[in-house]
Amino acid sequence: MEKTFIMIKPDGVRRGLMGEIIGRIERKGFKITKAKLFKPNVELVENHYMEHREKDFFNELVNFIAEDLVMAMKVEGEAVIEVMRLMIGHRDFKVASPGTIRGDFANTITQNIIHGSDSLESAKRELNLWFEEF
Ligand code: GTP
Ligand code: MG
């Protein structure tokens, strides 16, 4: 079964959206097989968002994620990487369709509620990084 890495970002946790998001994942029929609610350190978050290290928003993004609790999850199911990205919606809240998690709940570009791996390669890398295994 395919596996992906999902993280409810600090704004999602603070706004009390964990139940809503976990409910959507479960109702879709995907299985959450690991979950960890904790405050990640800066080094872990920098590593996670390594592909964006040259971007002008990198520090803002890393500080935001590392400042508070996140819910890190391993989620399994058929085509789960692609389907979770569809359920999450576009990174820009102005573009994200209603019915998607970001379309329904996000209202800023940096604080967009949730992360999902964007490919098999990043899912492997991120699960290894956040859960020290795959
Ligand atoms: P993630 O699942 O978080 O990786 O989002 P994504 O894959 O939909 O988008 P991308 O990887 O391109 O960007 C990573 C994150 O950086 C986004 O989710 C936003 O939180 C943030 N981000 C992206 N673009 C901008 C931007 O132009 N300005 C700011 N401030 N933040 C941005
Ligand atoms: Mg991304």
Set out the fold topology.
Elements: E1 3-8, H1 10-14, H2 18-28, E2 31-38, H3 42-48, H4 58-66, E3 70-76, H5 80-88, H6 101-105, E4 114-116, H7 120-131
Antiparallel strand pairs: 1-3, 1-4, 2-3
This protein binds guanosine-5'-triphosphate and magnesium ion.
Structural notes for this entry:
The chain has 134 residues and is an alpha+beta fold. The chain has a single domain, classed as Nucleoside diphosphate kinase-like domain (Alpha-Beta Plaits), CATH 3.30.70.141. Helix content is 43%, strand content 18%. It is built from 7 helices and 4 strands, in the order βααβααβααβα. Strands 2-3-1-4 form a 4-stranded antiparallel β-sheet. The radius of gyration is 14 Å and the shape is globular. The protein starts with a strand and ends with a helix. The mean pLDDT is 97. Guanosine-5'-triphosphate (GTP) binds next to helix 4 and strand 4.
Any descriptors?
about 130 residues, alpha+beta, Alpha-Beta Plaits, 4-stranded antiparallel β-sheet, about 45% helix, about 20% strand, binds guanosine-5'-triphosphate, binds magnesium ion
